Structures are given as C-alpha cells and as structure tokens.
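Usage

Read records sequentially. Each one opens with the input sequence:
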Amino acid sequence: MATALMTAPTEISWVERLRAEGAEGRAAVTELHALLLKAARFEVGRRAAELAHLRGGDQEDLAQQAADDALMAILGKLDEFRGESRFTTWAYKFALL
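and closes with the structure output:
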C-alpha cells in the first residue's frame, strides 16, 4: 500500500505537467513523445516480418507517425486516465496499438 501512495503523485504529475501552460507543458509533451517513439520503434521492430514491404526509412516514418498519433490521442483522453496503472503503461498502449 505504501508503494501505491508513493507512485500516485508521480503518475498524477504526468497529467498535471501535460496540462501545464508554457515551458513545463511543452517539456512534458516532448518527454512523452520520446517515450512513445521508443515504444513505437520497438513495436515496428517486433513486427518487422509483417512489414517486410517497407524499405529504407519507411519503418522509422511508421514509428514516428504512430508516436505522433498516440500523443494526440493521449492528450485528448487525459481525463480518462484513472490512475489504475502507471501513466506510462497506459500511454504505451496507444503507441503499441
């Protein structure tokens, strides 16, 4: 139980930082996008056999698009984050799916 209490402020701070105005909000969005891009690159690599038709930078473009789309979806659904899991776990699902 103590662990959950220690984790909650961090998870809530993600949402607060993403809603913040100015430099703090921009920094949070940049940090989240970097995490989403890492997750999207992992998933594109995992599915490489299914994506054999992609050449050159196409896989990177796909990962970038997935991260961009995930970021926009997350920002639009911040109110739906209930804190039942880590924020990053919740956010990764947007990039992976």
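Summary fields computed downstream for this record:
- The helical segments are 2-19, 22-46, 58-76, 87-96.
- The CA atoms of residues 57 and 63 lie 10 Å apart.
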